[in-house]
């Protein structure tokens, strides 16, 4: 590795002002969902919570989010389609010039008419989950027979209504051998982005479901190869050490600039986005978290300004300070742009500043 190239590239990719504003806001509109996913972060239920933020409260939150500029807003759940005012909320966000994405669950609730209405409301991207390459592998993970077929329906409708499609895949022990088949499927679906999520032990997800650190390293290297060859963008979720793998790949070729044709999630994979650092999560009742996978609340939007929580709360401030990291993450030369998954560290040992056990790198 050429250290001069690495230092130059780190400088190039650390310009985002994440101390003042998040890059992305993940907003859980409801926890209601008809699926029973084995890894569900939200531990979703089959009824709506009476404490959900009202439409008027959602409007107030949107007004406060405007203090950040215009971060990307992802309306998620549960299944956001359970909210009868979903389209009203989307239109309110679009009126405030936010870019909006939605992650509907693959169930009979999401119909062709729903997808068309999402397009008409101004949704810029539709995200669906794919955790198997056939009905057997996908449906067993999602807990409902038919989910794979409904996922394919949504993919086809997104194409028909010309909504850019993102596919989210959770990598775990059960589908690790299917990686190459996933790549083929994503390409054939004409997705614009493949988000590969490395399971975090929170909610229903258990530690034993995770792949090993050496297996994760192999997957990340395969992802880096796919990034240089595929027609779609690729990013890692809850595996910020993907940035190290990408930098090592590039610096080994004595390159500082992106390789021609390399698609890397509009540089999201390179930027130092992490739990509480470029990410903000709002729960269905208004609690504010550093991410959906780090279950530590900084407060509630009904009580405190969301901008104040993100910028000033000790939890968020600590998560953006790499000098506080412990163990090998604290010693790592990549701690500024990676920092390890703070959610996984917390899920593993209860300390969000501890080392990420999924990383095999030895600084």
Number of strands: 10
Q: Structural class per helix/strand content?
A: alpha/beta
- Overall geometry: globular
Main β-sheet, in a few words? 10 strands, mixed
Number of helices: 13
Short précis:
This protein has 363 residues and is of the alpha/beta class. Helix content is 35%, strand content 12%.
Label this structure with key terms.
globular; alpha/beta; 363 residues; 13 helices
Walk me through the topology:
Blueprint (H helix, E strand, L loop, with lengths): L2 H10 L11 E5 L26 H11 L6 E5 L9 H10 L4 E3 L9 H10 L3 E5 L5 H8 L4 H14 L4 E7 L7 H10 L4 E6 L14 H17 L3 E5 L4 H10 L27 E4 L4 E3 L9 E2 L5 H7 L1 H6 L7 H5 L10 H8 L14
Parallel strand pairs: 1-2, 1-8, 2-3, 3-4, 4-5, 5-6, 6-7
Antiparallel strand pairs: 8-9, 9-10
Please characterize this protein's 3D structure.
This protein has 363 residues and is α/β, with parallel strands linked by helices. It has 13 helices and 10 strands. Strands 7-6-5-4-3-2-1-8-9-10 form a 10-stranded mixed β-sheet. Helix 8 links the parallel strand 6 and strand 7. Helix 8 (213-229) packs across helix 9.
